[in-house]
């Protein structure tokens, strides 16, 4: 048995398909299938039921897959321990980001990170919160940058910045000339929102419902840019995070209006596993990101 065999087993359990698992592991299907057979022979137990159309893991197989994930995560930690002491800001770093943060934060920080930590290789993954948390738990990602939500206490958290949300409306809307607006001013209004799965949707719903606003159920957007296009086409109003809007608060037929205090905001944080050995790296990275973004947010006044 070797660690590579465990990787084959985990990939097969995830994908339930020999060809796809082989492709993910960059080996031929016969190679992967043969190693899985050898693993079963070595353990003296059947790990799965095979058929032409699907792979069904036995209870014993599922237990062994769970243990294999733990083993591989510990092996990765051993390698990271040595590197963290000698080269905390070198090597590869796999970072997950949510879709409502990545397109607006990355242009601000990637060049700055490379300038300050030239030996750090970044691999960036954009997915929704639940998928990112799962990948972080299983060791596929080193850290996440996302909106902090209740239930994330099992991870180490590094605060990055507090980001206000602003009202986006067409520039022909009666409110377009207002310099600020009360959140309660949305009472009775219908607000466009993102589709299920985006944490910003849940946060926006919370703010709007508390103010007496309603969701516009006729449409749910897949991205902030889709919401922006809907507003530009004079199809309602929405809330957008500040980094997603222009500093002058007017562009493409859309007016962005800040809220009066108390402003609706979201906390953007860097998360890592509590037992991660790369905390020196995360601390320095979080400090750099926070400083960079705070300077940008000051431009909004």
Description:
Keywords: Activator, DNA-binding, Transcription, Transcription regulation. Belongs to the LysR transcriptional regulatory family. The protein is α/β, with parallel strands linked by helices. It folds into three domains: 3-82, Winged helix-like DNA-binding domain superfamily/Winged helix DNA-binding domain (Arc Repressor Mutant, subunit A, Orthogonal Bundle); 87-160 and 268-298, 3-Layer(aba) Sandwich (D-Maltodextrin-Binding Protein, domain 2); 162-265, Periplasmic binding protein-like II (D-Maltodextrin-Binding Protein, domain 2). Helix content is 43%, strand content 25%. It contains nine helices and twelve strands. The chain has helices at 3-15, 18-25, 29-43, 59-86, 102-116, 129-137, 199-211, 224-232, 279-298, and strands spanning 48-50, 55-57, 91-97, 120-126, 143-147, 155-170, 190-194, 214-221, 237-241, 250-251, 254-257, 265-273. Strands 3, 4, 5, 6, 9, 10, 11 and 12 form an eight-stranded mixed sheet that branches. Strands 1-2 form a two-stranded antiparallel sheet. α1 packs across α4 (59-86). The longest helix is centred in the first third of the chain and has 28 residues, at 59-86. The chain is elongated, with a radius of gyration of 23 Å. It starts with a helix and ends with a helix. The model has no long low-confidence stretch (mean pLDDT 93).
């Amino acid at each position: 048995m070797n660690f590579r065999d465990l990787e084959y087993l985990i990939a097969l359990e995830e994908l339930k398909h020999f060809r796809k698992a082989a492709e993910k592991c960059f080996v031929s299907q016969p190679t992967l299938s043969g190693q899985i057979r050898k693993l079963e022979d070595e353990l003296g137990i059947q790990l799965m039921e095979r058929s032409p159309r699907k792979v069904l893991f036995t209870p014993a197989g599922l237990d062994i897959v769970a243990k294999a994930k733990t083993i591989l995560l510990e092996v990765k930690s051993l390698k990271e321990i040595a590197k963290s002491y000698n080269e905390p800001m070198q090597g590869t770093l796999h970072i997950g980001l949510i879709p409502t943060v990545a397109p607006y934060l990355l242009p601000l920080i990637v060049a700055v990170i490379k300038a300050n930590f030239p030996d750090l290789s970044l691999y960036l993954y954009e997915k929704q919160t639940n998928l990112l948390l799962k990948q972080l738990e299983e060791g596929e990602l080193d850290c996440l940058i996302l909106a902090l939500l209740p239930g994330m206490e099992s991870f180490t958290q590094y605060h990055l910045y507090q980001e206000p949300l602003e009202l986006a409306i067409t520039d022909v809307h009666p409110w377009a000339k207002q310099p600020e607006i009360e959140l309660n001013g949305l009472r009775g209004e219908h607000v466009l929102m993102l589709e299920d799965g985006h944490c910003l949707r849940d946060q926006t719903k919370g703010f709007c419902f508390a103010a007496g606003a309603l969701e516009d159920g006729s449409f749910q957007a897949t991205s902030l840019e889709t919401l922006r296009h809907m507003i530009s086409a004079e199809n309602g109003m929405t809330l957008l995070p500040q980094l997603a809007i222009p500093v002058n608060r007017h562009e493409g037929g859309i007016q962005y209006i800040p809220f009066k205090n108390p402003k609706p905001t979201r906390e953007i944080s860097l998360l890592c596993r509590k037992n991660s050995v790369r905390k020196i790296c995360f601390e320095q990275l979080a400090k750099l990101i926070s400083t960079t973004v705070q300077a940008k947010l000051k431009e909004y006044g």
